[in-house]
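Any chance you could type out a protein's amino acid sequence plus the matching backbone structure tokens because I've never seen that pairing?

——
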Amino acid sequence: MRSTRLSTSKRIPPVANDYVNRLRRTILRYAGGALGVASLGVRRGARAEASGFPTRPVRMIIPYPPGGAGDIVGRLLGAKMGSILNQTIVIDNRGGGAQVIATELTAQAPPDGYTMLLASTTHSINPALRKLPYDTFKDFTPITLVASSPLVFVAHPSLGVSTIQQLVAKAKQEPGKINFGSSGPGTGGHLSVELLKSMAGIDMTHIPYKGAAPALSALLAAQVQLVCTSPLPAMPLVKTGQLRALALTSLKRSPLWPDLPTVAESGYPTYQSTLWYALIGPAHLPADVVAILNESAVRALRSADVLEQLRRQGADAVGDSPQELDAFLHEEVDRWTRLIKTAHITATE
């Protein structure tokens, strides 16, 4: 596969504060709505019995290699959904290609409910960057928004920085010499660093990988010095001293890591970036099948053990309706498209 280079010819404008408030309100609204969806379990259970779905294992395609944040969330959700549906949820890791490989595979799957994709923020970024072999909206059926979380900047101890201020100062002293890894070109982690680069007026070199796990492995081996990724796989490595956490990408500190500042309070008050995951399937899924998958996912996300495991990793469970997810995806695509066009970010093959 040819490498992909992302270039920025103008500074990225600060992310609008109203987006943060909108996302926070959306998550709260979805959480409340999810309880209403769960309350329909008896009626939907009757439909499940009538349709017989599912009668065999269901595949969940994850556009990352094993071990990354998306893999952790997908396996956690899949195990609980499988117990609810009395069927195995088979995890199919298809990393690489900025998630296009896994997403195209989902679009081409039969519309029978036996294939789902755990899409993420990159799904809403790709339309503005690449000529895609599928239509981001027409070729998919929304099921539910799964979870959202901030990202975290983590550095190798050899870089010698412990804060965003120190990182910026070092990058200004040594332009282009700091290598940062990501899950791939155009992913949320990549653009989060590009956003900081633009706002701080610094230059660092991007090294893309095929998922969060390979990027973190490269960071642990000091092949790169910085990664912005989900706290799920990163913070345990910080706890053991193998990596240093510099800042979270949320506007406010997390109660899980109260001593860890945000980029916003590190000199860039409008900086904010969010990682989210959503379940989608191929286009034209039968309504009954969508209802069954939605109900099982919402029930899984409302279960105490899943809520607790996500909370420990700094992620907020959502669980909304297909209609709400559809509206959310349109908003996300519009937001990233405006940002990328304004900043003249392009993906050059």
